[in-house]
Amino acid sequence: MEIEPPESVVPPPAKFALPVDSEHMATEFRFFSIAKPHMSAFHLSWVSFFTCFVSSFAAPPLIPIIRDDLNLTATDIGNAGIASVSGAVFARLALGAACDVFGPRLASSSLIILTAPAVYFTSIASSPVSFLLVRFFAGFSLATFVSSQFWTSCMFSANLVGTANGLSGGWGNLGGGATQLIMPFVFSVIRDIGAVKFTAWRIAFFIPALLQTVTAFAVLLCGQDLPDGNLQRLHKEGDKPKEDFSKVFYHGISNYRGWILALTYGYCFGVELTVDNIIAEYFYDRFDLKLSTAGIIAATFGLANLFSRPLGGVLSDVVAKRFGMRGRLWTLWTVQTIGGILCVILGRMGSLGASVAVIVAFSIFCQAASGLTYSVVPFVSRRSLGVISGMTGGGGNVGAVVTQLIFFKGSRYSKERGITLMGIMIICCTLPICLIYFPQWGGMLCGPSSNKSFAEEDYYLSEWSSLEKDIGFHHESMKFASNSRSERGKRSVISTTGAASISPSIQV
Amino acid sequence: MAGRRIMLELVSLLVICISQTSHGFTLFSSLNRTLAVDSSATAGQVLKPGEDTITVTWAYKGTDDSSYKTVEIHLCYAPISQKDRGWRRTADNLEKDKTCPLLVVASPYSPSSRNGSFVWLVEEDVPPATYFIRAYALDAGRHRLGYGQTTDDEKATNLFEVVAVTGRHASLAIASACFSAFSVVSFAGLLTAEKIGGKTM
Q: How many inter-chain contacts (A to B, CB under 8 Å) are there?
């Protein structure tokens, strides 16, 4: 095997529009730039995720028309809602692994184009079963969340990753709120042109479907996997080792932190998905509002993502400057628990004004917690970043499915009682964050390991076997480890930021 | 235009928030069955929207109709079509009642003849369901004073069906199939071209 030692390879100096670190990840964020590779990746990732969210939740605002056309019962509608979020549970994990192996550009654009037919075929749904099936398959596209987080985690440095992830995730999630406004508007335009309402809703679905198609092509043609180029070319030129899927998968699922984050994400993002599905109906029924008014309140919940999820990411990065990873974990636990308390209060509010005020506050904390979660995810694993992102993302959808099944299916609980109980479940399922511990940085309740020689390199290099290290596959992880030393917080003495020496005798 | 509509909705939401007190409402159980209503739709008949018509006739059979000003004819869901569909539920408070989704006609009450009739073409956007016809008599202040319906008190007899007009067209099916196929095939083509281009580089 001819792998030249890195010192003798002199790649031509790459020119980047933004300042970068040793891994060529950007250390600055410029909103209005679309410069390749960093900012173009950011904009493509959030736009593609936004489009998929619009498609997956295109049906709820038109349910009053669809339920009459297809003669749906409340059970049919509930089942379709559960189906729409359950498809993505495994799709998110699979896409995470695919990102690690094929790169986010190919993985996400392929998924987007393969789920577009489900949205086209929604226009010819004719029964409760066909309606459930199209919602199920269209919901797979929600997995693009994972590729968007993976992509921004590859493009932006440790000091910015929370902000970048929060912005791309939040602006993508915006689709869930935007669709509550877009679809009724498109429907009314088509109906005013002359279509009967039972035909107008069908034609309306072509809009999100076309958007999805265009986005898939944009990602394929304009995207770039990594700062240094596309994954396939880097594999060919030997700049990046070709990954072994089974090893990537193993290191992902054997990391207990991924499982804890999967559980807790189910109780911020999963709760957000649940609320997206039930909140318009809740306000419509409890306060006797017009469906369009209830829809606007529902849209407000989703639209808060514009700033609230990024706020979580920004808050995490700000706290991490001083308190490092321990600060990130404490902030995540605090924000998510407050969200749970607000959820309990929401179910007990009897007046419309108070309910609207509480739900706005609840949306901010719930979505900020999602942003905070994905400011921790990039540090859990470097080799299996995609799998960890996928597990956490999948856990979010599992939370949505479980919560809807327990509290919002059938008439066991009234909706207000269901919301209160959901709040209690949020508080309980957020506690496991206390158990997350990084030996090099500490956890919520404990400081870093007393073994002072255990450093970031030891944590990240434990994912590579000694054979792989001999070949030199671990260099990227080494660079990341060096760049992640900021997670020690202000008390750390930042060691030399030069290229880490490749010593085969690192003690683990 | 959409922005203006949203503003209007927000303002009305604000108004509702501020004025939460509910004004007086009518209970269905307080109404007397003072109208005899009949329709041409027979029990179990299946009607096609856009094609079939219903002739509704009503006649007063009570004792005091001095306040009656208007008669409203409604198309109402039978219990089987309300099952597991909370948005169609029956409530005694007529402000919250959702049994009767469609107003067929509101015609002035004629005190001299004390009856009336109306021929209604079943509209194309009437949802497929099982129905009966109900008539309300209203006074000048639009309060309901009496009612009549084509079925019994349990809403079990003399129900008719309206069949589905799904809005599906062959053109939609063809468009969906074509767009889907084009999207996937051209994407695969681009991927292949990229791979071949990479190999020859």
A: 120
What are the pLDDT digits (tens) for A456-482? 888 888 888 887 777 777 777 887 888
Q: What is the pTM of this model?
A: 0.81
Closest CA to A144 of A176, A178, A105, A181: A105
Q: What is the ipTM of this complex?
A: 0.81
**B17 vs A contacts (CB less than 8 Å):** 352-353, 356
* A124 with B85: Cβ contact below 8 A: no
The alpha-helical segments, DSSP class H, found in A225-255 are 231-236, 245-253
Using a CB-CB distance cutoff of 8 angstroms, which residues of chain A are in contact with residue B18?
353
Q: Which residue has the tokens 């001083």?
A: A322
Intervals of chain B under pLDDT 50: 19-23, 200-201
Domains, chain A, in order of start with CATH, read: 35-225+243-443 (1.20.1250.20)
Is A201 at the interface with chain B, CB within 8 A?
yes
Instruction: Identify the H or E element spanning B47.
Output: strand B46-47
Q: Which residues of B touch A353 (CB under 8 A)?
A: 17-18, 20
By CB atoms closer than 10 A (0-12, 13-18, 19+), residue A304 is buried
Structural contact between residues B72 and B103, judged by C-beta atoms closer than 8 angstroms: yes
Residue of A nearest to B164 (CA): A69
Local structure of B150: helix, strand or coil: coil
**C-alpha–C-alpha distance, residues A453 and A503, integer Å:** 15
Closest CA to A81 of A138, A143, A147: A138
B10: closest chain A residue by CA = A293
Mutate to test the interface with A, among B1, B82, B166, B194 (most CBs of A within 10 A): B166
Compute the distance between CA of residue B54 and CA of residue B41 in angstroms, rounded to an integer. Answer: 6
User: CA B50, CA A151: separation in Å to the nearest integer?
Assistant: 53
Which tokens belong to A300? 């407000």
Beta bridge partners of B58: B37, B116
Put simply, whether A415 touches B (Cβ < 8 Å) is: no
Measured CA to CA in angstroms, residue A423 lies from A284, A407, A455, B114 at distances of: 21, 11, 38, 59
* Longest Cα–Cα distance in chain A: 75
How does pLDDT run across B123-136, given as a tens digit for each residue? 888 899 999 999 99
CB contact under 8 A, A181 and B129: no
| DSSP classification of residue B42 | P
Please check whether residue B87 touches A, CB under 8 A: yes
